[in-house]
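Review box. Two proteins, two foldings.
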Amino acid sequence: MANILIKADKINKTYKLFAEEINAVKDVDLEIYQGEFIAIMGPSGSGKTTLLDILGCLDSVSAGKLKVLDNDVSVLKESSLVKIRRANVGFVFQEFLLIPTLTALENVELPLLFAKLPQQRKLAVNLLQKVGLGSRINHLPKQLSGGERQRVAIARALVTSPKILFADEPTGNLDTKSGQQVFDIFKELNQKDGLTIVLTTHNFKLGLQAKRIVFLKDGRIVSRVESSLCV
């Protein structure tokens, strides 16, 4: 049986806005196994991004217990969460967040600098080739299409060899063709490389291509579906 990488037990996230409390995530139980490809879906405001941020150790829980790679992150300080993120987690966001003055190659290498890891130009080049950008490594972001910029962002997320890749609406700013190309990269990373992937999406057609779908509504998981469309 596959290893459990993440285990959420009745996790909650509450924000205070003046005198009002906003319950963004409510009593979520979730187990994520090694090698899974999960899409978190639901309407706007359902808590998808908040849940993803919590699972990826970008945000903390207000109540409940969360274990990530055998670490009880419910009780860890931010400095410890940073170490877990840098060593184990990759992130892809809707906004590509590339440095405009750096080439595609330099953008991919950047996390190695922040993580104080050896600069591995060959690895960065190989990752850009893997996402179909071998001929664009010296291009600046402004010289790339939206789909190409997102592929650079994926390569950047992979350069530290994460155990889990999180993606928040990674196709939200892309056209249909580019969005499918990006999703195909995720599927290949999962199926061929065994990478565990958890993403959020509004796109039902793309979401159904994940192996498992978790539906959120008002911060709660309302259903879970094993998809038969992941090919």
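Next protein.
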Amino acid sequence: MLAKRIIPCLDVKEGRVVKGVNFVGLRDAGDPVEIAIEYDKQEADELVFLDITASYEKRNIMIDVVKRTAENIFMPFTVGGGIRTLEDIRNLLNAGADKVSINTVAVKNPKFIEESAKRFGSQCIVVAVDAKRVENPEFIKYKGLSWEVYINGGRTPTGIDALKWGKIAEDYGAGEILLTSMDRDGTKMGYDLELTKYYSENLKIPIIASGGVGNLKHILDAFKIANASAALAASIFHYREYTIKETKEYLKKNGILVRL
């Protein structure tokens, strides 16, 4: 059995880490390089770095910040935001990223997932899915619920069924899914367990639960109830409500295999 992973997330805007609620109301949380170094010291399993306005602003991700971060940490490092071409992926990997996270470009052109996976390997292609609960009679329902995919940093609805999209991304070669509940993001109400569980039950690739962590029980639920492979969190770590060590010790006491 693989150990479950704890992954802090750095949402970066204009070179600073920010955190909001439901993708809006952003407030400053610090310098990304300094925060990354701290998480490395705390022995986080991985780090995710998302330039959250790059796609919307139609600009490239901040390579210099990525490079400085990569030079100062030793854990695996995923970078996303504003990726539009294979050259963008190459540049990020050359700057020190271990994986890239793609969302908007993947939704607009699913073949891009396949091209990326063939060129660089599925293991470094993470497809990020930003999903929001909707009422749409044409969508798949799971426990009476359905979800729509959003792009451009959660600003643009696509009309795409999130439960169908995950399987499409897997079939095109995604190595992992970063699954964010827009309804729960920043609310501290816990992950959307129904959404996460559907993905875990219907896809073979690892699922990273994201959006809504408020306490350690929420992370435990992501593993025990929704069977996620990894749990991503931001504000509970950024604002020092819990450390990575406290989190892992709690999970271990509750029967979850983690790397300590």
